[in-house]
């Protein structure tokens, strides 16, 4: 352990937890008891509680060689609250479980927690519990998020109807391009550690992968616009994959239009640098944490022209399947490649390149 | 992968989740939406929600070479619902997050889930969500449990008062002795794999480590007896450690009596086999998942003689500290050794023996 670093064994488990508890202040009155007992106690009143859990694993979901720990902590919260927003609910509390090997000194975990607490503050959620254990290798972050909503406001994946319009927020594929960039510079650095990473001018795509934001603003906006989506999901695995989830659960088909896909110019340029088709990147990239939802035709006027939302297609009969209408106006079935963690691992294991 | 085993990559992430969802049936009406959307939706009515999370990590909390996966799944649920019981609440729902390396075929995870679902059924909790990710090495199980209670029934760690009686359920130290036995037989087997493990006649201590139960019965019993503990905690780290938690949070001291500690005869015999002091084993063993609570003096008659409960001491002034009155009637300060996962790891890393 370096001189200015503290091994966890110096503090002990309880010492570490005490230290952590001092950093976590609860201000939300719905939290009756936070960290420090066998369980937390919350009172969300008469609203329904919405619960989601997500794990980020070193070597699978992130690479600490280019992911600052503070950003990682921030992102771990974002990934979870994004699921709560995707139910049209408001996140209220999270539990945080960390497993880490002795390679991580206390200061590293502090940095991680700094990001967690910053995101918690940003999204108005309280850290109400968690546990901290050692792992044999690497760092694993599991967060469970709880939110609230009135029953009539909750939006599921299964409510899309034929002729509904398909809407996506923000832009697509930028996180994936950012990841490619980080991976490339890592390889360059591994080959020659005298060469400094060349990341200049790529702020946007890098921020999208390293410090994404969940779309709290969209949930507020929809409420103000008086639009209740008929179905909604967040884009973690990739647009195509999420469209398939909505179509399968809602028992509808879908046509989306290549020329309607929102892609940031920086993403287009970078994708071309990597000799990737920007449309494929937008469809399959993943980790965008944008919201994908369907609305009734009658809400078209409310959504049209909104700078945060793009209408990218419409829902069809189930038997028509899921189709992409390309720029040359031909229609082809879409495949839900998604961002399958298992397939990716397997491909990596075999030394193959993933598409 | 063996012939009759299925690699996860064959099913893919979504295929695996679909397969899992078919096994999970929700019957509790308070679960409005279980697995299959961005988040689960629950309605616990006007009661308070109690939330706890716990992680079991391969190589730290369990060793798959002698832990059947079905038992492991069962135990992962028990560990979590035990925390809910320790709040005097009723567990209702769990989320399950699994991280596992490609070493685990689908059938192994099925076995793990069999145990999870069996325990869920036993304790009346619904599996409402979770996620499944790959890990670089080993298996990590994180469960978040949610329960309900009327606000006036919830018991915290911080309510013990001077002169309250300290009560523990069941018996202590058996899980630790069971673990020592498994470790010993593992070493024998490693040295010579022709020698079959000698575990006969040790059913009780083995069951205590491999398939513990949480004390749902005690929560019901306390309610029937009309006894509301003034403080309560479950024994995961060891009796001594948990006593310190209650004393610290309640700002009291405590005297416990060596001759009152409930230790099963099999545990005493086995501890002696290992040349361990049974009292030390009972104080510091850990993983008992019994309940430790304080009651008012006036409830003495109700608890006295109950076969599930032992009165082991009483609370004192904070300044008196935490003391053990030994069989020879001398009093000595107790130390909260606990079962510090970090210290244990460090000691193991340095090849030292843990006490």
Description of the molecule:
The structure is a homodimer. The first copy, chain A, is an alpha+beta fold and about 350 residues long. The first copy, chain A, has two domains: about 10-155, PurM-like, N-terminal domain (60s Ribosomal Protein L30, Chain: A, 2-Layer Sandwich), CATH 3.30.1330; about 165-350, Phosphoribosyl-aminoimidazole Synthetase, Chain A, domain 2 (Alpha-Beta Complex). In chain A, about 35% of the residues lie in helices and about 25% in strands. Chain A has eleven helices and 13 strands. The first copy, chain A, has helices at about 10-25, 70-85, 105-125, 175-190, 205-210, 215-225, 240-250, 265-275, 280-285, 300-305, 340-350, and strands at about 30-35, 40, 50-55, 90-100, 125-135, 140-150, 165-170, 230-235, 255, 290-295, 310-315, 320-325, 330-335. In chain A, the strands form three sheets. The first copy, chain A, has a seven-stranded mixed beta sheet with strand order 8-10-7-11-9-12-13, with helices on both faces. In chain A, strands 3-6-4-5 form a four-stranded mixed beta sheet, covered by helices on one side. In chain A, helix 4 crosses helix 8 (about 265-275). The two termini of chain A are about 40 Å apart. Chains A and B meet through helix 1, strand 2, strand 3, helix 2 and strand 4 of A and helix 1, strand 2, strand 3, helix 2 and strand 4 of B.
